[in-house]
Input
Amino acid sequence: MPSSVRVRFAPSPTGTLHVGGARTALFNYLFARRSGGTFVLRSEDTDAARSSREFEQAIQADLRWLGLDWDEGPDTGGPYAPYRQTERADRYALAAARLIEIEAVYPCYCTPEELEAERQRQHARGEAPKYSGKCRELSQARRAANEAQGMKPALRFAMPQRDIYVEDLIRGSVHFPPGSIGDFVVLRSDSMPAYNFAVVVDDSDMEISHVIRADEHLPNTPRQVALFEALELSLPMFAHVSMILAPDHQKLSKRHGATSVSEYRDAGYLPEALVNYLALLGWSPGDDREFFTLPELVAAFSLERASKSPAVFDAEKLRWFNAHYLRALPAAERAALFAQWAAHDERLAQLPELRDPIWLETAAQALSDHVHTLSDVPRELASLLSDDLPVPLADDALRSSQAQALLRELGDIAAREPDPEQFAHATSKDALKSLGGKHGLGGRTLFRPIRVAVTGSEHGIELALLLRLLGPQRVARRIAAALHTQSASGQEPSRLP
Output
């Protein structure tokens, strides 16, 4: 093996980047950067029907958004290029020729239908599915006859019938007894390499020192070990990290909600939050610390602290992480993001407030406890700024004569103080308390009627800050509407006891 660390992330470009794949890429990235090694990006694109350059580019975009850069890859090149499997056919042909030469493989003429029927019979007997090996003993005459009929065989590796031990950096020694794994395809009938064969050739050619991947690949590892040994190639070290499961402990899938990195980006998650959260799925820093920047993760990461147990993806915990990162942003940066996301709502896009940086910073600070992802911003701002408010007609907050007198005076203040700064001063916390004292109101009996009148709700951000964000014109309109609605309900004002 090379003296330096070389790891790879090798997604198939058949879809967008799954969060499980992103976690695998992250662990490889952290391991490489921690050791001063090389992080290789490789494209396993031999599934011609489903692979595309568009998906390949989308995966690269997602990795860059997460802050994970690579040293070698399809787009950057490198000393072991090419990094797409579809461009490495000559390498697979040479390796296959070597396997043929040493009689480690044989032609298999079984059709997909025959193989499926065989699997069904094994399943009915309660057996683990594996190839029976029936083409292994075909005579040369039978093979020639098949070829004469135009049958195109796959090339199948003759799995040695011996114990195979995989020394895993996370799971320890894993034993695969003789006969537990059947002969497997290395070249399909269309001459395209199968997964286990291609990755062995690629990992050897690219001098990969450590293969870090999800433990769903552990059953593939003895096949790959057997191929490495048959081709007399040096084995990499293996590390199989735990699976990421949904809260119901099933494999994370679409039915559990968002599963791709792009979905979380489009929902308003910050890359720093997603990276931090993914790092803690199947790895522990060894203490109670939860928040890490990417450089801090690099400094802290080790495979020794990776877990064997499955990790559970908790969407609410991720939202909590994201809210923390949003609140930690500099005020101006958070305000700019709020403005960008608010503009997604046509009702908000034209509001002059979104072009006022001071107002935006104030709003971003005020709403921070209510915004967990940036996609919450349009809803929260629309709720704040929309004049179409539900005013509870029977709410006693607006029924007392003191509350109505208070609201009329506050409405007058808003009407005669059109300047936002002067209005903010006139409705400061102390000014509101003074106004409440004038009408015999204080505490909840003071703040509740004002909040209900201007928001239609009893809960929300600090009242003085709320009035400042609404501005005098909006406050005056809302109070007038609330008083009119209350009057139109036919309920007589009451005196507070």
